[in-house]
Write a structure and sequence with these properties.
The complex is a heterodimer. By secondary structure, chain A is mostly beta strands. Chain A has strands at about 5, 10-15, 20-25, 30-35, 45-50, 55, 65, 75-80, 85-95, 105, 110-115. Chain B contains no helices and 10 strands. In chain B, strand 6 and strand 7 form a beta hairpin. Classes of the chains: A mainly beta, B mainly beta. The interface of A and B includes residues 90, 108 and 111 of A.
Chain lengths: ~120, ~110
């Protein structure tokens, strides 16, 4: 089965702890993305990567970090510096846009609760 | 239509009726649009897309209409079924936004059996 997997589905952490969310894809996509979804708001881009060992900040990168050591994997770390980390986190991947953009395919999401 | 806020716009339709979900986008330079379906607690699922050089595209039971003059996008679902109940949102890609998409807040569709 081709697709994007995120784990775990639910994650609970205490305030002040860093936490890493996993995202793996076997679609052979070069581009991967992390979004945050809050109730009543559209998805907001945290980070994206178009190639291994390279990534760019999105609109709300503060308090987050990523790595892209392998094409298939794009883990997201929510650091203690993120002021409001409780949210639903979505990972996506796509063919690298060339002259035209392409659809992004999403994983099932991880719901992070920080107390 | 979609709007920013804590409460999503809602649409209730009878099973078998057609549904129309609207999206107003903001960037006149947007060149590509996607409709996604998101069920509760799940990731968004691609439904249909359209590029700015088209004004209509049809899929299986779904049609997307694009009106660039008024920056409006709509999703029509024919013969709506209970399994269509979900939040639907549009995403726009602008020629001037690099690889970024911007997403609407969504419309919650409830199908009444």
């Amino acid at each position: 089965d081709g697709g994007i997997t995120q784990s775990p589905k639910y994650l609970f952490r205490k305030e002040g702890q860093n936490v890493t969310l996993s995202c793996e894809q076997n679609l052979n996509h070069d581009a991967m993305y992390w979004y945050r979804q809050d109730p009543g708001q559209g998805l907001r881009l945290i980070y994206y990567s178009q190639i291994v060992n390279d990534f760019q900040k999105g609109d709300i990168a503060e308090g987050y970090s990523v790595s892209r050591e392998k094409k298939e994997s794009f883990p997201l770390t929510v650091t203690s510096a993120q002021k409001n980390p409780t949210a639903f986190y979505l990972c996506a991947s796509s063919i690298v846009p060339g002259t035209a953009p392409y659809e992004q395919y999403f994983g099932p999401g991880t719901r992070l609760t920080v107390t | 239509g979609e709007s920013v806020g804590l409460h999503l716009p809602t649409l209730s339709v009878q099973e078998g009726d057609n549904s129309i979900i609207n999206c107003a986008y903001s960037n006149s330079a947007s060149d590509y649009f996607i409709w996604y379906k998101q069920e509760s607690g799940k990731g968004p699922q691609f439904i249909i897309d359209i590029r700015s050089n088209m004004d209509k595209r049809q899929g299986q039971r779904v049609t997307v209409l694009l009106n660039k003059t008024v920056k409006h996008l709509s999703l029509q679902i024919a013969a709506t079924q209970p399994g269509d109940s979900a939040v639907y949102f549009c995403a726009e890609h602008g020629e001037d936004t690099g690889n970024q998409f911007y997403f609407g807040t969504g419309t919650s569709l409830t199908v009444i059996p």
